[in-house]
Structure formats: structure tokens, C-alpha cells
């Protein structure tokens, strides 16, 4: 049997990701990205030998989290592979966990839910000077950004991948809803502070809605940059699925 037919699904995803993000400005990028979306949409938890659960106790030791011992982190990460062009891994969230609002400078990303339900809020930064009014007094001393709050949607294993690009949906917040959840994550290129791709966290500068319903989307909002929240950290766990060769 040809080797391509023997390759695991996650191997084919990795191979297509390498092809897609090798030339993100090339003429074939759109076609390659579409093929990658199709492959990613096929991935299920069982393909990666995962069963529904939150982060394990083993992740506490590897996560570099809070100083007290034995605390299971709210989120853990299973590294699958990484090149200079992309990284791929699995995030596991315990029930009620939140990955706070953060950015992906100059990066593309794809997220596919493997189990559970995620609520994902997506935003775009707006050009400096686009704001019609100054930021509210609650902004404090952190740098402020004007942003377009584009969407807030629920994603399940039946949903297509959630995408981000350098200019669209580049900021997002991810919440696990009604139980633990996990998602396969591709970032291209990977975070790298030495090349201007550090992760920045933000807080939405608005109070609770006056009525029963949240304000309609999309809408313009103010964000303030904040340190990483004290109650958020990410542990590490071994990846149990098929090995990926690059």
C-alpha cells in the first residue's frame, strides 16, 4: 500500500499545514488553506487517542503554575509538532476554564474542537485614531486598543474549524461551557517574542449590559492590555496520539 494511504489523519494534517504555511503570501495559499480546513474538519478525539476529560494531575508538575503543589491547572497543552512555519498541539480545558482574551501578532490560526463545547469571542483591532471617543476612565494605566467585537459563538466537534488571520479575528477568548473541552490548535508561524510575536492579554472595558440581552454584535469596544491573569496558567501533558513526522 502507498505510504500516503497509510499515513494517519493527523500526519496528513501536519503535512498539509507545512505546505500551506511555507508560502502564506504565495498564489496557492487560498487553495492550500481550504484543503487544510477540510482535513482539520475530519479530525475527531479518537484520532488522537483522546477521551473527554479535563487537564490531568500530571499537568500540574509540568505547568510551572502556582507555587502550591498538586493543583491541577485550568488548561493544559499537548505538543504535537513545531517547525519555523507552524506549531500544532491540543489544548485541554477543565469545566468552566477560560483562556483569556489574547492576540496572535502577524499569525494565522486554526482551531478544531475535539470534544465538549467552547464559547469563542473574536475581535479585530482597529487602526489608531479610529476611535470616536477616548477610552473610559476605568482603563487605568495599561495601553488601550479600540477593537471591533465581531462574534461570540459556540463551537462543538460538529462545527467547522474556527479561523484567525493577521487581520481578521486575531484576538479571541475561549471558554469551556458545561463540561471539559479540548481543541486541536494550529498557529502559523508559532509565537516567538524575539521576532515580534509575543502573546498579549486584554480586558474588555465595559460593564454588564443594562438589559437582559447582551449588546448586539459586531460593535466597537475598548480593550486594555493586562498581565496574564493570576488564575490562568497552562500545564503540559504527553501527547498520546499517532506520531507526526516532518
Automatic annotation (TrEMBL):
The keyword Membrane does not apply. CDD domains: cupin_ADO (cd20289). Keywords: Dioxygenase, Iron, Metal-binding, Oxidoreductase. GO terms for cellular component: mitochondrion. It comes from the Eukaryota. GO terms for molecular function: metal ion binding; oxidoreductase activity, acting on single donors with incorporation of molecular oxygen, incorporation of two atoms of oxygen. Transmembrane segments: none annotated. This is 2-aminoethanethiol dioxygenase. The lineage of its organism: Eukaryota, Metazoa, Chordata, Craniata, Vertebrata. The gene is ADO.
Amino acid at each position: 500500500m502507498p505510504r500516503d494511504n497509510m499515513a494517519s489523519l493527523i500526519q496528513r494534517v501536519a503535512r498539509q499545514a507545512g505546505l500551506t504555511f511555507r508560502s502564506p503570501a504565495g498564489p496557492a495559499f487560498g487553495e492550500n488553506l481550504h484543503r487544510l480546513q477540510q482535513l482539520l474538519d475530519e479530525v475527531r478525539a479518537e484520532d488522537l487517542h483522546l477521551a473527554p476529560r479535563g487537564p490531568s494531575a500530571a499537568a500540574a508538575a509540568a505547568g510551572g503554575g502556582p507555587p502550591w503543589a498538586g493543583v491541577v491547572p485550568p488548561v493544559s497543552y499537548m505538543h504535537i509538532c513545531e517547525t519555523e512555519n507552524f506549531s500544532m498541539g491540543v489544548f485541554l480545558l477543565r469545566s468552566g476554564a477560560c483562556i483569556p482574551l489574547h492576540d496572535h501578532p502577524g499569525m494565522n490560526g486554526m482551531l478544531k474542537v475535539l470534544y465538549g463545547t467552547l464559547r469563542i469571542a473574536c475581535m479585530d483591532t482597529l487602526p489608531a485614531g479610529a476611535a470616536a471617543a477616548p477610552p473610559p476612565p476605568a482603563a487605568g494605566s495599561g495601553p488601550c486598543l479600540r477593537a471591533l467585537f465581531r462574534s461570540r459563538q459556540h463551537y462543538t466537534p460538529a462545527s467547522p474549524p474556527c479561523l484567525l488571520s493577521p487581520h481578521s479575528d486575531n484576538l479571541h477568548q475561549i471558554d469551556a461551557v458545561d463540561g471539559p473541552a479540548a481543541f486541536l490548535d494550529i498557529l502559523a508561524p508559532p509565537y516567538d517574542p524575539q521576532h515580534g510575536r509575543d502573546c498579549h492579554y486584554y480586558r474588555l472595558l465595559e460593564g454588564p449590559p443594562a438589559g437582559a440581552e447582551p449588546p448586539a454584535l459586531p460593535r466597537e469596544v475598548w480593550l486594555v492590555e493586562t498581565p496574564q491573569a493570576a488564575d490562568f496558567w497552562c500545564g503540559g501533558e504527553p501527547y498520546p496520539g499517532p506520531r507526526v513526522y516532518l
